[in-house]
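tokens incoming
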């Protein structure tokens, strides 16, 4: 019954009658997930700029921002989108910073062939209006992933660094839904807040609105490098597993793959900075290559040579795999310029386990 409800929820978000060219690509993506061999790339997340109207406690944008570097132009997005689709991608996502502040958002979305792909935009939700929702739908956007950190307004506003953010975000969620745009919610949990009312209220809100709530595990990156108190215990992880088992609306990224359960970094997911750096995950600031130098396929293959990324690890590498954090992710801590080059962290052959 749990698998059936999850399938129905996935179908709700993926099936787009107004995009007939998308349907056969989705069917093929699902079929490929059952075939032997390396998994097909499924999802690419573009950070198109790091400008934002909020000041969040867990933000890692300042770690990756580099003034003066060449940025991806619309033509670059067109080429990269073609390469990604050849590798199997059916979902392009756009984040920041706050992507709704970016003037080129329409052109960048168009470059990624919205009639043939699922298009999602990750936003803090404070800039959403009915007119903006209708505009995004015309551009081909299917889903807004909206960050909500607590059901208690004061907690959310404190976390986001701006009074009144909660009311604007909640209004944005309801406006998007009432105007026919898909919504998923995303919240970062920590050891301190996981069982508190702020998170419990979000679980209830997701069920009430019948939308997926993605539980984002905390990562020692950006402003949280030295925050050991936020790290989850095994008991915390077991509790999260029980939440995802008992509700079709609660997910972690470990359950979002078409292939196996676990970390989908490099196998099904890639993240790209505005400067063309390819990362295996938004929180792993180690780059196997740059799209200005090589094709996406070549860069991804470099990452897949490592057994850390060729397999679906049952733990989140960036958040809860202590061996990976201590031996690899820790090399990014305190660095003035990120991401680090792949070969400075991993051996040239791609695997040092």
């Amino acid at each position: 019954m749990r698998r059936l409800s999850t399938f129905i929820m996935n179908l709700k978000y993926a099936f787009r009658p107004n995009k007939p060219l998308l349907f056969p690509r989705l069917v093929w993506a699902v079929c490929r997930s059952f075939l032997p061999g390396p998994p097909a790339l499924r999802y690419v997340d573009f950070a198109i700029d790091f400008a934002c109207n909020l000041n969040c406690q867990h933000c890692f944008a300042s770690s990756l921002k580099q003034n003066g570097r060449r940025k991806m132009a619309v033509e670059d997005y067109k080429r990269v989108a073609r390469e990604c689709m050849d590798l199997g991608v059916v979902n392009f996502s756009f984040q920041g910073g706050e992507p709704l502040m970016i003037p080129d958002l329409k052109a960048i979305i168009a470059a990624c062939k919205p009639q043939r792909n699922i298009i999602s935009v990750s936003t803090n939700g404070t800039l959403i209006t009915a007119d903006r929702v209708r505009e995004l739908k015309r551009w081909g956007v299917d889903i807004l992933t909206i960050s909500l950190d607590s059901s208690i307004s004061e907690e959310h506003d404190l976390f986001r660094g701006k009074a009144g953010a909660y009311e604007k975000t909640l209004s944005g969620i309801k406006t998007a839904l009432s105007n026919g745009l898909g919504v998923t919610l995303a919240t970062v949990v920590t050891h301190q807040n996981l069982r508190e009312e702020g998170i419990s209220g979000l679980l209830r809100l997701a069920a009430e609105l019948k939308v997926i709530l993605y539980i984002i595990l905390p990562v020692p990156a950006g402003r949280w490098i030295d925050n050991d108190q936020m790290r989850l215990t095994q008991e915390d992880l077991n509790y999260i597993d029980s939440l995802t088992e008992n509700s079709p609306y609660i997910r972690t990224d470990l359950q979002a793959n078409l292939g196996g359960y676990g970390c989908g970094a490099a196998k099904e997911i890639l993240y790209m900075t505005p400067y063309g750096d390819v990362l295996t995950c938004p929180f792993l600031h180690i780059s196997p290559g740059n799209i200005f130098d090589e094709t996406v396929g070549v860069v991804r293959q470099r990452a897949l040579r490592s057994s850390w990324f060729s397999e679906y690890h049952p733990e989140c590498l960036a958040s809860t795999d202590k061996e990976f954090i201590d031996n690899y992710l820790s090399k990014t801590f305190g660095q003035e310029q990120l991401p680090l080059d792949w070969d400075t962290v991993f051996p040239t052959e791609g695997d040092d386990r």
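note: Residues 2-345 form a domain with the TIM Barrel fold (CATH 3.20.20.70).
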